[in-house]
Design goal:
alpha/beta; about 325 residues; 13 helices; single chain; Proline_DH_dom; 8 strands; binds flavin-adenine dinucleotide; TIM Barrel; proline dehydrogenase; disordered C terminus; nucleotide-binding
Length: about 325
Amino acid sequence: MSNMTRDFFIGLSNNQLLNSQAKKWGFVLGADKFVAGTTIPSVMETVKNLNAKGISCTLDNLGEFVASRAEAEQAKDKIITLLETIHQENVACHLSVKLTQLGLDIDQDFCMANVREILAKAKEYAIFVNIDMEDYVHYEATMAALKTLHKDYDNVGTVVQSYLLQAGDDLSDLKGIRVRIVKGAYKESADVAYQEQAAIDRNFIKLAEERLLEGTFTSIGTHDHHIINELKTFIQEQGIPNDQFEFQMLYGFRNDLQQKLANEGYHFCTYIPFGDDWFGYFMRRLAERPQNVNIILKDALYTEDNKLKKGPVIGGAAAVSALLIWRFRSKRGKKA
Ligand SMILES: Cc1cc2nc3c(=O)[nH]c(=O)nc-3n(C[C@H](O)[C@H](O)[C@H](O)COP(=O)(O)OP(=O)(O)OC[C@H]3O[C@@H](n4cnc5c(N)ncnc54)[C@H](O)[C@@H]3O)c2cc1C
């Protein structure tokens, strides 16, 4: 995908008005392909179905632009209810949380208190909690929080993004802490991040190989079969035991490959986002892959028997217009 179109969707993901409107629309534009329902009971059904296929899960209670203490506390309470449900239902499932949802932009101490409450409850139930990595603005604060929290809780880990120039150094600092390696989903400047796909991919493999040799449990978070195949060969050659790592992919992406890896005997974990605050997450996924846009556009405009959909008028129209503008711009881009 060209940088211009990627930027366009990243721009939409950061649009607060569209994010807040989308909560009222419910799922439109085929968002339900990538977001597993809005409620805890509905997402639990998805978890149980995947567990039955030999796949574990990590749940992400979606939430963008949390601006008040009340919203952050509401998110924390929902995550604690989620932990209780995971425990009661005895499913193979851990949590992924974002510090901004728990108040990082409001007050760091308040945020830390919320995370500590979550980690204490999770520890009681022996559930792992991953702190997702957000954009670079929040990077230092997230890493600092992780290191402080890990002194008291061994059930917490985080994410290292291979597009960051400093990823290698930071990963070395995280020896003994569980980490997920990903490429990175946000738009970052050349001052802090590689801009070329080949450099990001090379760094991903380098980081993953270092971690696999180092021995702390590592999640390999990618849909990229080139990287997966290269790492599978490395794992075999080096005799890395299967219980030292897992592959992770996002819900709704490459379902066949997810199942294939699980069937081959690898630990596999599906990252499942849920909740009504789906817009930003969904736009970041469109930014990553043009094919997603084609699927979604067809899904948004037509019913299964090829009739034009009526749908939620304002939300549908806004989002479809956004996609149509993107199509127009990308066609112009191809000609230029
Ligand atoms: C489990 C998980 C958790 C994540 N957590 C974070 C996080 O905390 N912070 C963060 O910044 N980012 C996170 N991300 C997003 C990540 O940073 C990337 O933006 C995203 O995964 C896209 O990169 P990729 O490695 O999947 O492959 P891409 O670079 O998107 O694709 C590389 C190649 O793989 C193949 N491919 C990819 N997708 C498909 C497909 N659907 N069908 C067929 N072929 C395909 C194609 O050949 C493509 O050219 C996470 C991703 C995953 C999977």
